[in-house]
Amino acid sequence: MRTSMKFKVWWTIAGALALGACNGGDDGGGDGTATSTASTTAGTGSTSASTTSASTTASSETGTGTASASDSGTTGTTGTSTATTATTDPTGTGTTGTTGTGTTDPGTTDATTAVTGTTGGGCGVCNEPNQECINDVCVTSCQGQDPDPCGPNQACDVISGECKDLDATCSLAGGYTACDGKKCGPGTVCDGLGQCVAIAPCAGVECTGGGECWGALCSCTRKVECEEPSLQLMNGPFSVEMGGLDFADDCNAWMVTLRSGPDYLRRLTPMGTLTTWTGVSNLNMGEVRVLKRLTVPQAKELPPWTLDPPVPPEPQPVMGLGEVAITYTCCPTCGCQANPPQGVARLVEEDMVNPLPIVIVAKATQGNGPFGNTAADAGPHGLTWGEDRVLYVGNSTDNGDWNTADLDKMQQAKILTFPSRVTAAAPVSPAHIVVGLIGGDIMLYNVNTQQADFLADAGDDITSLSHDSFTGMVYGGLRNLDIIELHPFSGDIVDYGKMPAKGRVAVSPSGKLWFYPIKYINNVPLQNWPLPASF
Fold this sequence. Notes:
Oligomer: single chain
CATH architecture of the largest domain: 6 Propeller
Number of strands: 40
CATH topology of the largest domain: Neuraminidase
Shape: elongated
Distance between the termini: 27 Å
Number of domains: 2
Strand content: 35-45%
């Protein structure tokens, strides 16, 4: 059972542990040495363009925090995260409200947690990050205090360090969760190794000497650095025979085909330049994923209530941002999986001979969902990047297996086996990935402990999971066409809307939720809806 956004009723599930389409085109063949071709079509913001080509031979980990929205608010309790959500009509326009918790990356905002103390004057020692010497008095804000000192009708906003009404705008509040010797407060989550890491809408962490931590460099407003290609461009040649879609931080759109015959990886820039890489042999492609930031950029300006204290240090930059990976798939009876093997490949643009080398070798596996189509339900599923530049994917050695490829160490491994076949996955923190299973179970996997815990039941097969780097929420598409909004640490789910046909959803950097079809099954156009711009 799920709650509807119409009533904005929240429920929480917590629990224990409980990767040629076969229509005659991909009929095998291929010796694994097929030519891979990259072609580029220059665009000018419209779908008409001229073409040039270049050939190449081819533990308590649950975070805490409540972000209060102006239209509704919920307050967190210690040990769980609670978040308000936006109301949206995917068939029309507009969203109101929002936010939740998310992850780490440097950037910028209109509101920054920065109450840093000093030592000197008549204050004596006054050097905790939630302290400041004002007129020879050491003033301690409500940040890092557990229990919350603000009283029954207010809560501590860790962005400002002030007590605010429970429904105040631009406010991030909630309880603190034990993390070995620390306590992880709003805007943070325990990484399973005794450290609190930042999650959206924050990009940094502040901690007292006693180990109480909260999010820093937090944003109340979605900062839009770029716009992805227009709906007209997305529905042009780029999306012909589309099977998978993802967006990079620079707003380039990436897709893979699912078609009879050789498949293609395509990139479309916001201005309309289209580049295509041809896959090897006759293998299908399933998913495409880009390594990207887990939080939107945050502003470095100090809020007006601070007295010019230093800004908290920014997190270390994530290596490998912008790298692209795809899955090669084939059903066991389609005859296309023997040579070369299917699995996960990464794009190496500078390699003119083999730009899509396989980094995780997979055997043929088959599911009966989430699409109800033999070709679309075959092979590896749930492809995603960890912030550690490790590729994760399900079903590459057997249904339910969770496999990795560490690109730095050049190692492949099977980590664990889930109770059922993996269908979707998305990173939500530097330490966590949400993983969807056939049937609708959603697991929270920790990359440090290599353990997974049951998070929620979506109620039906999950076609896709996509993380919003501003709110921290995860959007999922289901087999029954429902779109859900999931809080990745509390397990709270609300209904968001409906997909027009079987397909998947993906969040773009500009703050839109895109529906895209598996065109081999349903040849319908892409659509998008705006996500909340502030909380």
